[in-house]
Amino acid sequence: MSATLLPVISGKSTPAAANAAAASFAALTAKLDYLNTADIENVRRAYRFADEAHLGQLRNSGEPYITHPIAVAQRCAEWKLDAQALMAALLHDAIEDCGVTKPELIERFGASVADLVDGLTKLEKLEFNTREENQAESFRKMLLAMARDVRVILIKLADRTHNMRTLGDAPRSKWTRIARETLDIYAPIAHRLGLNTTYRELQDLSFQHLHPWRYAILDKALLRARGRKRDVIKRVQSEVEAAFTSARVPVQVQGREKTLYSIYRKMDEKHLSFAQVTDLYGFRVILQDLTACYTAMGVLHQLYKPLPGKFKDYIAIPKINGYQSLHTTLVGPFGTNIEFQMRTEAMHVVAESGVAAHWLYKANDPQSDASQRLGAQWLQSLLDIQQETGDAAEFWDHVKIDLFPEAVYVFTPKSQIMAMPRGATIVDFAYAIHSDVGHRAVAAKVNGEQVPLRSEIHNGDVVEVITAPVSSPNPGWLGFVRTGKARSKIRHHLKTMALEESQELGEKMLAQALRAEGIDRERLSLDDEAHHANWEKILRFTGNRSRADLLTDIGLGKRIASMVAKRIVTLLAETGEKPDVLLMSRERYGTHESVSQGALLLDGSEGASVQFAPCCRPIPGDGIVGYLGRGEGLFVHTDDCAVAKRLHYRDSERFIAVDWSDEPVRAFETYLLITVSNGKGVLARVAAALANAEADITHVDMGQEPAQDATDLRFGVAVRDRIHLAAVLRRVKRTPSVLRVQRAKSSN
Fold it and tell me: Catalytic: 388?
């Protein structure tokens, strides 16, 4: 709405006149003094366009709608964002609410502004009451747009801040949803990017609308406490300023108060009353340079006694979001605990504005790129996680882990400092260095001592990761990794490996099924045009997109190889090709009537696509059968396994012929049940006998019952085959104190 249409009556300010002032470009002009004349004119053009587009639209408060884009642009101007960002802030609702198209914005204001507005428009769909997958997809788009251009999220945070400031004008029914979304998503993002002023304001505004009664009670309590402590705070400020004057250290001393939300959270988490929260007040000391910060700490520690364990040096080791300050808590007059933060002016701007400090300092120090890197590592990690994750819900699950970490700081062997979330393990550290280091990790040293990969890292640790070229991620790592990057990299690698292995298995199974039908695989060359057409028909029949997809489905058990083979035979018959009768008879009627001579051969190198059933633990030399689990790959059972017999009775068409290769490439796990007469050193003697028989011990179980005269020990051991197992059994049986030894098919 144009400001000239709103009246001023009798020289007094009316609501209409106030609206006119808020809706005019003059409300923004005062904050644009850092822009040149041409940029200001471009921002003015965007204002005029937005004013015309929103003409007649009102906010819930009754104000002209244009007051909202102006307020968003004002916040962005406080961060000294460039003209393009300010134009996008003014236009951010134009596509969504006014029917303006992106091509129209490109024509009027250029592609960069249009891209920013388009990125923001996609974010307007965020709703907590949508279905979970839609919500996850919305946040995925937001975070990726942010990763590509951080101005998108800065404008969005300015937009959300103004919406929260005016949430009281919205229907009460919307308060909880919008405030919860702000507290759970936008406030943590602001914190992660170092926008501490915005972070604190969003938290307090969310708290005010989520718990209005609690907010009001705490607000009154803080007001009373402020009155009681006024004299103490004035005295502290006076004494501190006098101490710095005496020491000839120029400073600015600013009082600061704990936010209501941080007070509430401390009371809630530590079960404290308001009276028990002692650190309500603090002081910020702004100094000229780095040396002065450490000098100031000495001055303060001479003035008041420090509290042990309450000193933090975030200058030498900055927080993950770039924050730098010295923190110390001192015991002031009357036993009052007061926190002091010491920082330079540059550190102060970064502490309050985070990534936005890039624009604040760009004009003054164009050579400095330190502020440009703020948050860049995390933003890049979002793109990395996106590349590894196809599913939006999984992506959001990974990102939530990284949104609000409490950092620990560790060192590489070359003394490089790395910040990791609290609770991170060696594997998280390895993936933080490089995905290849994570994939190939086999061992680690912390402070020179060998530790397991699952070990948690702590502040000050020197961590060395040992790699091996043949190593690959272990699925068990997912049970203890802490960071989203490590989790997504491991899952992606395991999925890729499983699909590749399933495809290879599917190819072997289809070849076996085709031979049983008298078709040699070589006759189905993809280079042959006729056979290429046949493959297209087969894929239409199975519903797969490609031959690789079909083979993967066969390997996973989603398709039955024999059914696909029969379909191929039918299609070949239509083109006049007949099965090879000799091949068919040789494959179907071998020496074992029930098991084809063309059985799938297993040597232990098949990977995750072939699993050796834990119910019977087959080893080379055992008679075996293969069961295709639905989407789970091939399970190998011994032919006398009770579980396999039940499955065969219920699902016989999912069984395929399998056999052992003549030369297995690894050892296989089986279990031994060893009954011993209890006595000193018996466990050591049994373990030594197993080691002498070259059987690796994988598991030991002594049961939960108290030791009796005769006790059962259950050992998991890795053996090459049944011949090796027999040698192991003989060796153990000759051991003193062993009464009986036998193979236990199950580990239970």
Answer: no
